[in-house]
Structure formats: C-alpha cells, structure tokens
Write a structure and sequence with these properties.
Elements: E1 2-7, H1 16-29, E2 33-36, H2 46-52, E3 58-65, E4 71-79, E5 84-88, H3 89-93, E6 99-100, E7 103-104, H4 113-125, E8 129-133, H5 144-149, E9 153-155, E10 161-162, E11 174-176, E12 186-191, H6 218-232, H7 249-255, E13 259-262, H8 263-270, H9 273-278, E14 282-290, H10 299-305, E15 315-321, H11 323-327, E16 332-334
Parallel strand pairs: 1-2, 1-14, 5-8, 8-12, 12-13, 14-15, 15-16
Antiparallel strand pairs: 3-4, 4-5, 6-7, 9-10, 9-11
C-alpha cells in the first residue's frame, strides 16, 4: 500500500512539512510506503510550502510595520531566476500581533500597511510577479492600509485627502490609483477562503470576531465595509469570491489589479498534487481545527474534494472538529493529537 500525507500546518505547533514528515515516518515504521507533500491553502505557511516546491528559491527579509505600527522583521520567499516572490500576509499582518493577555487590540487601531510594505520590498528585490497568501491575518481594515502603503490615495466627497486607515473608511468617496507602485507588477492574491467582503460569509461577520470585533462594533464595521465597496466597486460591490480574505485584503488587491486565485488550487498545481494522489492508495489530510470555515476553501476539504482523490480512502487528522462539517466532507476522523511541539 502507498500512502500520501497532505496536511496543512497546525498553527502554533507544526508546519505542513513537519506534520507530514511525522505521519510519514510512522507509516514507514510499519512498512508502509509513504510520502509527505508540503501544502498550504493560501493561509499561514504558504510561502514555506511554495519554497519547498521550488528550485533555487531563498528567504529574503525586510523591516515592515505590524498591525499595531511596531517595526518588525518579516520574511518572504523569492525565486531569483523566475523573479517571483511569495508573501504570507501573516508575516507582516499576522493575528499573533494583535493578541493581548486579555484579548485583542482594538481593531480600529490596526492596519494592513505592513503587507503593502512587504510587497514593496519584494519589488525592490527584483520580483516582477508577487503572490500574496492571504490567511492568518489579524486585521479587518478592508485592505486600506495595504493600499495606502502601495501609493493609493483616498478622498472624501469634498476631494480632501484622507489617511489610509480604517478610521477613514466611512468617509471615502473615491480612490486614486494613478500613482500606485505596483503598476508594472503581476500581482496574485492567493486566498484561503472564498467569502465576499460583506454579508454573513464576509470579512466582518464570519471572521471579524476571531480578530477582536465584538457585538459593540460588528454592525459598524459591516456598514463601513458596505459603504466602501459601494463607493469604489459599484459594479461588484465586494461580492466576488475571495474579496473577504484577510479582513478585506483580497478586495483591496483586486482593486489594484491582482488576479484572485484559490490558494489550494495554486499550491496543488505547484506541488503536482493530482499526479501524486493518482499514484497512491490512501491520502491522509488534516489541520488544527475543522469547522464551518473549513468549507470555504480550507486545505483538508479541498484535498478531499480533489477529483483524483475521489476513489481513495481519506483519513483526516485534526485537533478539533465539527460533526456537521465532517458530514460535508468525504473523510473519516482520526483525532489523536500530535505530540506537543515543545517536547522534542
């Protein structure tokens, strides 16, 4: 029997490569031919998975601002021969930066500017194609900070220039993209969710609470996002798939001319996943938590729904899961936890 291990990262414990290596090692101990593949779905760890499936790539580093305005050192993947960079928005605008001992930093005080700064750094390094993985972020600013860092200008109805932050969002009348620094770049927004900017499956209502939004400001943010979308995107109004990724960074990047692609689709092509699944008997997948959000583009469900995997056995490994979500997949559950990462 041949086994393929295609597991997402376990946030705070293991990367995709580490998790796959552990499971594959156990299989080999029992004489089962097994292979691990490093994957991601556009979320945390996508640049690492991208680099693992490339030749001649390396890490580059840049100083950028985190969501709270603190200067941090962030890294991104760069393939010089192809002049391609792969950025994790979480490296600059990660959710870990907005957590406190008692909860979260006030979302009104956070910004996605650091991700825009990281895009600029990759461009200065020589990248002409920049892929931005949009998962694991801690901001909910509709990508306004990112846009400002790349040169977008925001104006109110009196044609007065506004600061590029969330406090301006309900005043925005129009935006000027004539001086954006990404005109000559091929931008790709790599999303780990397929939700729109607004609505029940959008950036605010579905993902805002896990980034610090509360009942007290949830309705305000939703109203602000609706206003912003109506003003700057009158045709689609932020309702395209992926617009809600990373607190609205997917929407902002689309406005800047980026193509928006499902992260799993891109990474599975890079890793030649379909060919590897076709050559195996059983596929093991998983992530830290499987819930209703997993059905909107997350890796384990995408692996299970891969056309090449339809006739395969499909064990799923996770720390927490929702029974209703499991019924929506083709997997059976194996929930024995990985060992604590601090124990080795």
């Amino acid at each position: 029997m041949k086994a393929l291990v295609a597991i997402d990262s376990f946030k705070g414990s293991f990367s995709s490569a580490e998790a796959a290596a552990i499971v594959a090692q156990v299989f080999r101990q029992y004489g089962i031919d097994s292979t691990g593949v490093t994957l991601a779905d556009g979320g945390e760890g996508t640049s690492e998975a991208f680099l693992a499936n490339q030749r001649g790539g390396r890490w580059e580093y840049a100083m950028v601002h985190d969501p709270c305005g603190r200067l941090i050192k962030a890294k991104y993947a760069f393939v010089p021969d192809e002049r391609v960079a792969m950025i994790d928005a979480a490296m600059a605008s990660g959710i870990q930066s907005v957590k406190t001992d008692v909860g979260f930093v006030n979302p009104v005080m956070t910004s996605s500017a650091g991700t825009g700064e990281l895009i600029m750094a990759a461009s200065r390094q020589g990248a002409t194609k920049i892929i931005v993985g949009l998962g694991g972020t801690g901001t909910t600013d509709a990508g306004i900070g990112l846009m400002g860092a790349l040169g977008a200008k925001l104006y109110d109805s009196y044609n007065q220039l506004l600061p590029a932050n969330i406090s301006s969002i309900n005043l925005i009348d129009h935006i000027d993209l004539s001086e954006i620094a990404t005109k000559r770049l091929q931008l790709v927004a790599c999303t780990d969710v397929d939700g729109p900017l607004t609505g029940t499956a959008g950036a605010v209502q579905m993902f805002g609470p896990q980034k610090g939004l509360t009942d007290a400001n949830l309705k305000d943010f939703e109203r602000w996002f609706q206003h912003f979308a109506q003003q700057v995107d009158p045709i689609n109004q932020g309702q395209l798939a992926g617009d809600g990724a990373a607190g609205g960074m997917g929407f902002a990047l689309r406005l800047l001319g980026a193509s928006v692609v499902p992260g799993f689709q891109m990474m599975s092509d890079v890793a030649q996943l379909a060919d590897k699944i076709a050559a195996t008997d059983v596929v093991i997948t998983g992530e830290g938590q499987l819930d209703h959000q997993s059905l909107h583009g997350k890796l384990p469900v995408q692996v299970a729904q891969n056309r090449a995997a339809i006739p395969k056995n499909m064990p799923l490994r996770c720390r927490q899961y929702s029974i209703d979500t499991i019924r929506s997949t083709r997997c059976w559950i194996y929930d024995c936890p990985f060992p604590d990462s601090t124990s080795h």
